[in-house]
Amino acid sequence: MTLVVIFGITLAANGDLFQGRLSLRSKPLPAHDETKNQQTRNKILPAYDETKTQLNTLVIVDTDDYKITEKDVTDLFKLASDIYLKPKTGITFNVTGIKFASFSEGNLNFSSYLDEEYAKNQESKSNLPEYIVAFDKNEVTNEYGGYKAHYVIYWLIDDLENGQKINYCNKFPSKYIGGQYPSEISIPAAVVDYGHRYAICGYDTDGITIISNTSINGQCINQEGIPCISKNGYQMCSNLQNAFYAQNLLYYSAKTIVHELMHNYGENGEGDHFGTNTCKENMGEKEFQDILNKTPIAPFDSVTKEYADMCPNVWQNFLNSKQNCL
Ligand SMILES: [Zn+2]
């Protein structure tokens, strides 16, 4: 167990420093075009920019929490590409780097780690990723599987103001990442529990210690006394052993990698989940129903899961992002 770190929070403290500096947005993202959105938001389109075939992704592994290899990481991202991202968008995750580090000692957190990694290394600036996934087990990821984050490359501000070219291009900048920093220097990120155990059964509230062979603590969809079985290397609720996420230990983590990615391209938080009122309003009731009525594509057993539980219009926002170079 380690600290809960949300990228960007520690970096957002110097508000005054950056007041008035936003003029450096020499290449602002295009304004939200309602007319265009009306025409395209109801469809999942192929990426119209043919160069947008790969999402360059940096992975950080907290070695205090996981004993996993580079192959474990690339296998998971291949799965996430194969069943989620590629069928819907034509885009695959391209893991450009995997950093293994211990985050439990001292004050090291993901943001400061990345600051060190890039700010002090001129050569690596042009290799900045377009998405960052940190594998970390903390109270939130242990319970929910992961959460959205973003990394602000705040140290680029001075370079940009001085007119230096960074040679950093992001094919998928998100204008939906809020805060006081220009979205062009904010990289979508997620903190994810690698190998998240779906439907744990008989574990104490820490999620680690087994104290029962039947469900407790609201497990198994709030049913006490459901017998636990052994599956995928842990104790699972027997009433959920045939559920989709019980079929493969990595399905839930793959879903979370995509789910939290897409949260970075929406501005409604949980309202951007599949099937919410906000989702239906943004898509139009009929268009939403048309998607809902489709037959799920294997291996999924529902259209909701096919979209990683995210509203199709947010997937569209991801596809609509246009390359920005600094
Ligand atoms: Zn969510």
Total number of beta strands: 9
Q: Provide the low-confidence segments as ranges.
A: 1-6, 8-48
The small-molecule ligands in this entry are:
zinc ion
Query: Total helix count?
Result: 12
Q: In words, what does this structure look like?
A:
The protein has helices at residues 15-18, 34-40, 70-89, 110-119, 139-144, 156-161, 219-222, 251-263, 277-283, 285-292, 303-306, 312-320; strands at 54-62, 92-101, 131-135, 146-152, 169-170, 186-192, 228-231, 234-237, 324-325. The protein has a 5-stranded mixed sheet with strand order 2-1-3-6-4, sandwiched between helices. A two-stranded antiparallel ribbon has the order 5-9. 30% of the residues lie in helices and 15% in strands. Mean pLDDT is 84; it is low at 1-6 and 8-48. With 326 residues, it is α/β, with parallel strands linked by helices. The chain folds into 2 domains: 10-19 and 31-196 and 250-272 and 315-325, Collagenase (Catalytic Domain), CATH 3.40.390; 199-242, no CATH class. Bound molecules: zinc ion (ZN). Zinc ion (ZN) is lined by residues 259, 263, 270, 273. Residues 259, 263, 270, 273 line the site of zinc ion.
